[in-house]
Amino acid sequence: MNNIIDIRYQATGKSTSVNEMGMREMQARAYKSRAAQYLLIKAPPASGKSRALMFIALDKLKTRAVDKVIVAVPERSIGKSFSTTDLKKKGFHSDWILDPRYNLCMPGGEGGKINVFQSFMKGDTQILICTHATLRFAYDRIGAKAFDRCLVAIDEFHHVSADYESKLGELVRSLMTESNAHIIAMTGSYFRGDGIPVLLEEDEAQFVKVTYNYYEQLNGYQYLKSLGIGFHFYHGRYTDAIMQVLDTTKKTIIHIPNVNSGESTKDKYIEVDAIIDAIGKIEFVDENNIIHVKQPNGKMLKIADLVNDAPADREKVVSFLRDVSAPDDIDIIIALGMAKEGFDWPFCEHALTIGYRGSLTEIIQIIGRCTRDSSNKTHAQFTNLVAEPDAENEAVVETVNNILKAISASLLMEQVLAPVLTFKSKKNPDEDGYDDSGIVTVKGLKEPSTDRVKEIVSSDLTELKAAILQNPDIQKSFIGEVDPEIVNKIMIPKIIMTRYPDLQEEEVEEIREHLVTDMVLRRGITTDQSGVKFLQINNKFINIEEINIDLIDSVNPFQQAFEVISKTITPKVLKSIQECISAFKVSMTDDEAIYLWPKINDFVRSMRRKPSLDALDPTERRLAEALVYLRQLKRGYKNGNE
Asked: For the chain, first and last CA: distance in Å?
């Protein structure tokens, strides 16, 4: 199996070591902003966000900035991250003490939990843990004003939505406008699968942002040294192909497809049985509902089934997994909707996902399950087992669309997981084009002219890339059907303007240049044996010292992702994908047609013919489409003036 992405890390130990107060690097960074009323912490899984919250919350209590702390998590199992923790012995001024009465992440109905919540708000106890749902129900009963002088911490903040129908989003907006509550928002992936922003722009602007990127986290581990992300295509039923990618010697989480997806057999229990049968023979099921399976080679494996949703059975498995403390305690976990965000199994080496995931957030959460640092592994692997597109199948268009989504997710993950680069304009010809600190100089690159642009470039590019990569027209540009300058100078700016409607035209252009530069150079920089750094563009190597913004704008930043994935699939599958994508009608706009008009004239002068709609060259076909569009536009104009 070939990986689309292979990244190596230096295992510096920096992100897991602690300072004199017991804080990791990310936690210390967040603690510096503890005075902020609204704080947004964007940091990867396992970076210590829950402990960072403890440090900040305890300091707010000690300084009387707030009287109470409420921590809300998306599901009950995540609540254990906020259990009583001894912090004094590591140098901090206070311990995190949770009264069991106010741990509402336990089994039980919401009615009783709301009563306990109200009792907490009236009493002297300072800390309460609950789910997002409990927080919403309590808010509905007591109103925003009751949260005065409270710190409300929302874990996995990407569950919030700017959509007016989002109850959690409405709760956050109301706390900001109708109370003096403090808010700490924590997330490992600050974007949603539905393309709706997490917060309205004017609300987000009030938050102080603390960002700790994925590369900082993974590069600073003690044990983990590499990460691979790959795709494997199957034909027929996935249960017949799973052993082609499942290495039973690796600690693995298998996420089976949603029952509504094309990959599902529509019977999740039979799928689990088929996976287990492919692994070996069931010997017995123990008192914790863990399945003991004997492989053909005689080795015994312990398998946890989280697909079985019978309450009593699942609770036994969840309780067992909550207390897992050694690699040998469990070998494989099979899950459907569980074992994603906030799920803590540091020994996991391989996250195997069957079927496409349209949500970028979900993919990042799943990958995060295997990227925790642990002494039992040096490599982490994410594998997506996906169905081949079949040209004879009616669902081929849906399958190809899913492949485009998978490519976009992979491209985003590469951007997220690779080293962070900083770009500035090259004003002195003698300046190095690239230095060891990650600063790249680019001729003609516009420097940020306002604080707003500086903030977006420094902290929001990942979220902006996610919005761009979820755009259907952008996804259709992966195979080069659209002129690179159309992608870079027309399509991308429109998305930036939609996300940031308050920006001036010049500000949009500055962000666009930095974003496109980041996407093009992030993948392309290589070093030869003599130490000279080059950028590979369209199979040509260009010295990094000669890079300029015009050259960068001539590159489709997404096409290389398709070229990489195309090497991992058979020619038959690739042909099916290309034929289907070529049949998609990419909408033509007035701006694009007018932009292409000089190129059409250049083509006619050089080739002594008009561009053809049947041309093999995709650029020529696009010119032909633009010519047809302009003719139709001209006819419409004439008809309207007759």
From this structure: 63
